[in-house]
Amino acid sequence: MRALVMASLALGLVACEQGHPQSPPGGEGEPPSGPVVPAEVSWNGITPLVRPTPPLPPLVGTADVTYVPEGARGLSDVTSVEVRLRVSGIVGSVSLDAEFLAPGPAAYEKRTQTVVAVPTEERELVFSLPVAGTNIPIHGLSGTWEARFFVDGAPLTAIPFTLER
Length: 165
Fold this sequence. Notes:
With about 160 residues, the protein is mainly beta.
């Protein structure tokens, strides 16, 4: 029985050596004869399918405005204005700018925040613009304001809101 096992092993080794020569048969410098296995083929000899990368979802931002206290619109009544921004489609880390524009062409305030996300996540950010006790009621800055949002300098979305006299 032992002799049979040894003979089987010897035959297996001979078959392996004949199937996979160590050096090319034509000698030094000649290309090997026989099939050449491409590098992309996996260990089992089957080339995996390369699936196309799906396109990234678009960068989308939506904003809404809340007055504190709720229902107040007057300069002497509003404590703050909260702008809630929901953004999706962010790839990695981005710089998100929020600009509050007073009535007319003047920028009142700008804030920058770093946001880290994957494209399938939706992030929600809240920006609060204090009104009571600031220059807004003191200088009578009533009228239509605008909150504008930018991602890495590119416009994302904007929303107007009104502070009344």
